[in-house]
Fold these 2 entries.
Entry 1:
Amino acid sequence: MLALATTWLFASSAAFPDAPRIDAPLVFDELRPASGYGAIIPFEPRGQVNLDRVWWTAPRAETVKQLGERFGVPAEEMRALDPSFIGPRVRAGQRVLVYRHDARTPSRSVGAPNRGRIEHAAPFPEGSGWRLRAYRPRAWATRHVVGELVSAIGEWRERFPTAQPVLIGELSRRDGGRVRPHRSHRSGRDVDIGYVLLAPPAAHKFTVATPHTLDAAATWALVQQLLASGSVESIFMAARVQVQLLPHALPHVDPARLRSVFSVLATDPRARKRAILRPWGGHDDHMHVRFACTDADIRCGAADRRRSKKKRKKGRAKRR
């Protein structure tokens, strides 16, 4: 388990001379990343999040069957969750119970992000600091991931109450598995989050982060809050976005740790891969946050990949 610490990350801006200047308390299983997975970074104590029940709002008038397809919850299951939920149709703005926690069924990630699944996933709740898509079959993750992310965004929102809400994109399906066109997002530990913008987007669509669109100070604060949780393994983020965040990170980052956070400052290719913020194609309009494994998860992360590689080698040997 990670140890409690309070030190932060600081460095000279000379490294980048061209960088721009610049519903009730939740209850979830208190799990921290298991040792051996992800980066060991400082974290702060968190407020708890109540995921015992989650309600979503119907965005339009439609049949219960259509709403079930929109939310990824069969109509029969929604009726079983809430016996008072009757009638063949829902009205726009109607609150619908989509999840009720059962303590006998632990929520956990099984396998690697690119070949795993989820057991007893939880839906990401609605909130004032973020926006969910109207179509939500892929708005599910482990209870740990949902709780940690809700706490981080909530704490960030308290610091930046006037900032634009962040857009929540793809998480995982209720049972995990393939989420096209992604290669990952299968085991309930991956979340796509839009960068904080200076102006609201015209629709629920990610916007490329440029000095004219990006609220760099608020975006760095969100990243900082995620890192403070101690639950994040890595964040995939375009190099040019990292450069825009650097001036806001410098006052808060220990020089000895700066390169372990920003891959754009690492000179060694291996060090770049080990940094928390890592460049990856297609992440100039959103960041992909991967949460670390916990002790409750099964065959999680790198260990699962090593086993799979051994199995493939054995399979090839047999075919030969």
Entry 2:
Amino acid sequence: MSRPLQIFSRARLAAMAAAMSLALAACNGQGSDVSARARQPLSPQMLSLMSEKDMAPPSPILVRVFKEESELEVWKTKSDGTYALLKTYPICRWSGELGPKVKIGDRQAPEGFYTITPGLMNPNSSYYLSINTGFPNAFDKSYGRTGEFLMIHGDCSSAGCYAMTDEQIAEIFALARESFAGGQRSFQIQAMPFRMTPQNMARHRNNPNMAFWRNLKQGYDHFEVTRQEPKVDVCGRQYVFDAQAPLGQSFNPAAACPSYTVPPAIASAVSAKQRADDAKMAELAPNTPVAPVRTGRDGGMNPIFLAKLNGEENSTARLAYGSSSVPAFDPANVRPPKSDAEIAASTPAAANRPTALAARPGAPEVAATAPGTLPATTANDAVRRQTQTASADSGAAQASVLMGATPIVSPGGFGQ
């Protein structure tokens, strides 16, 4: 293609993107407000932070989410091509409990490895802005898991999602937008139950999801030792990372894994880390109380937001996130997680169930166990707007057009 024709083609695509963006905004009845939200530039503070960390707005990103800590991390590549932590965001609200999402209606936030393409970015969300996690992925589908529109979004209200404040999701959305504009075709979300440290693994050693979590930890370890986005495949109904299939063979989620290889340098580093972690976990276990296995939990909220809701100060938490104030949100529209006592009172039948339940489908070692369904917290059903999550974010199915510093349209960018 000649250069003049190439320029014309890009200009035409940009015009198409603009027209489609306006059409989608009009269909959602939000007009220019939607476009303004999706186009918000990165703040001078964020640009300064990137510069300090040897990063640039167009460079690739990677996102890690930790339920138990109620934190979301954005990582970004430096000039040498390795990922480094850019910023940690306190999560305003997530729903469910530790463990994977199994079926639609279980109000569980997902766990696993998800690939985010431009088509999963939704500027038309009723929850300010949102990023569709892409649940269910190939791993989830191999276990027959169901659900849709599982998002990272604003509004601090969750029914199976990871909810941020509007201010936070605007910045995260902009970081992703600029990376797509810079040429990144997709970025990875690693959704974990907690940070996969020996201490946390020892605390949760008796959890029926442990086999599944050990599989997630393999990918966590690949990223920890390489500081590169791990290549993710699924075979034998489990994740494999940085795996290279023999010539002529491929990875099939429902079939046994082929005799794949992992680059020796990565395999050696990961193996050394896992041996050290296992030894530390064995050392800690005798003196580490086991975290209770609870069902019907009401999710979590970062302490920085809980303190705000309770009219308390939490200076330590604020400083941990590099801010002198809590990210703006409307406490009147936010319901904190119910305590165990409140859950027991509202669902007495669930409170009488034994705590050591059979693992949900998804733990490779116990997949044959009778399928379990997470009990819904009925009190949650009355929460403002939470029961509307699927319809509120249905615009993601129509999808979006991303416009960064350089307008872009990628395959699938208009729908999914």
